[in-house]
Amino acid sequence: MTGTLVLAGTPIGDTADAPPRLAQELRSADVVAAEDTRRLRRLTQALGVQPTGRVVSYFEGNEAARTPELVEALAGGARVLLVTDAGMPSVSDPGYRLVAAAVEKDIKVTAVPGPSAVLTALALSGLPVDRFCFEGFLPRKAGERLSRLREVADERRTMVYFEAPHRLDDTLAAMAEVFGDTRRAAVCRELTKTYEEIKRGPLGELAAWAAEGVRGEITVVVEGAPAKGAEELDAGELVRRVRVREEAGERRKEAIAAVAAEAGIPKRDVFDAVVAAKNAAHTAP
């Protein structure tokens, strides 16, 4: 009889947010796999519990090597509890490899739902929440970051990102460049902690604010691309959209056709706008 893999959400800030079942699972699990065993120790002390099972580390550096060991324990009937430093395992944290391996072996996988920075930031952002997508962390290198943003330049759903505080200003500036500096966004800092702060505004203003330096754990929520009719799109916006698609790898002809379909206007109108912009650039002093 095989065991059970339990993914448990941990507090993203305030330890009082820990679900009651988390303490129960910590006490009874045969194996507790933790992203950081020191942080796990602080959490168990705050909750007043003592794990009775074996505690092992399970983080990005040893995830691939340790997964077979945990699957073997599960296959032998163990109840394995997986926790990360904050939030739900496998959401930009270790866990996906273990879940996939367990599923492949027909091992039961369940969860103890808990706090989520993604959903908390989304709910507090003041932006549309009926449709959204989670984009995780953007690449660190500037060129790769811009390419990734260009891929979602026309994404209509609200987007949620994680970011390191020392890269926040560069990320917001890149978002303003690709999405437009008037696109609405919210920077959620230190969620549920003592110095929680939600900074809302256009991307251009948020980029200027972040340039002064920001500390803490950051989640960024960005409004999706607006659905615009032909009468709302000026020539400059049409050209910008074509340029974004070209920089993402599309041929100009394909980019023009896509932008025209998006805007509900003839391809010739977009083509003329692109040619006019090109001519204006050549004649500029």
Structure commentary:
The chain is an alpha/beta fold. It contains eleven helices and ten strands. The protein has helices at residues 20-28, 37-47, 63-75, 96-104, 117-125, 142-151, 168-179, 203-210, 235-247, 252-263, 267-283; strands at 4-8, 31-34, 54-57, 79-83, 108-112, 132-137, 158-163, 184-189, 197-202, 218-222. Helix 7 runs antiparallel to helix 8 and helix 10 crosses helix 11 (267-283). The longest helix has 17 residues, at 267-283. The N and C termini lie far apart (78 Å).
Question: Shape, please?
Answer: elongated
Count of discrete alpha- or pi-helical segments spanning 4 or more residues? 11
The end-to-end distance, rounded to whole angstroms, is: 78 Å
The SS-based structural class is alpha/beta
Number of strands: 10
β-sheet strand percentage: 15-25%
Strand order in the largest sheet: 3-2-4-1-5
Which bin fits the share of residues in helices? Answer: 40-55%
Helix and strand run: EHEHEHEHEHEHEHEEHEHHH
- Rg is 23 Å
The averaged pLDDT comes out at: 92
Low-confidence stretches: none
Largest sheet: 5 strands, parallel
